[in-house]
Write a structure and sequence with these properties.
By secondary structure, the chain is an alpha/beta fold. Helix content is 30%, strand content 28%. The strands form 2 sheets. The protein has a 7-stranded mixed β-sheet with strand order 6-7-10-9-8-11-12, with helices on both faces. Strands 3-2-1-4-5 form a 5-stranded mixed β-sheet, sandwiched between helices.
């Protein structure tokens, strides 16, 4: 039996074909290339479990894929508890499904307290206790989005193509370094809620490579954390 896990984020679709024991394959596609996934799968899944935060058009692409494969499709949604994680949101069902899956994936990889950081189009920074309680978290613009917003909404700032430096002496470096420092600062401030010997930052997402070298905290990298959470939440 295999499960096709789909993570439709704001920018791309991440997919993974999973058995109870291991991933058979993983990959990334543009939203408009979802139909091509059927030809890339090494085996036909028994069902699909999908997490979608990209809107109705992407959901329709995923439904068409399920119809092409002729397999059942289940939509992953936030709940009050799942797979050893308790949802502390004021209204649990209003937590983004991708954040909920990432929290479950983080718990699957690390049994102690953690700060779950998803660094993509947006950056989310969520506190997970040693007992598996999601205590709350932040949503920030992602690094690229910070650069883009500055360029679009100011008259004199460019679409930055700079490098990180502690004391920037040109505009491109100042923008890139400012966005990175703002995100690093938010992560390190939120880590104050999780002080413990076995604490770590569980880090995933397209901007993880930019953040990881500059964090002064223990870091555990996971390539596709939402996919891990989908697989961990499934009943095989």
């Amino acid at each position: 039996m295999s499960l096709l896990c789909l993570d439709a984020g704001n920018t791309r679709l991440k997919w993974g074909l999973r058995t109870p024991d291991a991933w058979l394959a993983q990959g990334v596609l543009a939203h408009d290339a979802i139909a091509s996934l059927s030809a890339q799968l090494p085996a036909l899944p028994a069902r699909i479990l999908a997490c979608n935060v990209a809107g109705a058009a992407v959901a329709a692409h995923i439904e068409a894929l399920a119809a092409t494969l002729a397999v059942p499709l289940d939509w992953f949604r936030s709940s009050s508890a799942a797979a050893g994680v308790t949802n502390g949101y004021t209204t649990p069902t209003q937590l983004g499904a991708d954040r909920w899956a990432a929290l479950i994936g983080a718990r699957h990889h690390h049994s102690g307290p953690a700060l779950v950081v998803m660094a993509g189009t947006a950056t989310t920074i969520d506190v997970l206790s040693a007992e598996g309680q999601f205590r709350g978290g932040l949503i920030l613009p992602g690094l690229d989005l910070m650069h883009t917003v500055l360029a679009r909404n100011t008259a004199g700032l460019p679409e930055a193509n700079g490098h990180f430096t502690l004391l920037p002496t040109n505009t491109d470096d100042a923008i890139v370094s400012g966005a990175l420092q703002a995100t690093l600062g938010a992560i390190e401030r939120m880590a104050c809620h999780s002080a413990s010997a076995d604490f770590c930052v569980v880090l995933s997402g397209g901007a993880a490579d930019a953040l990881a070298p500059h964090l002064s905290l223990p870091v555990h990298r996971v390539a596709h954390l939402v996919l891990e959470g989908l697989a961990a939440s499934s009943v095989w």
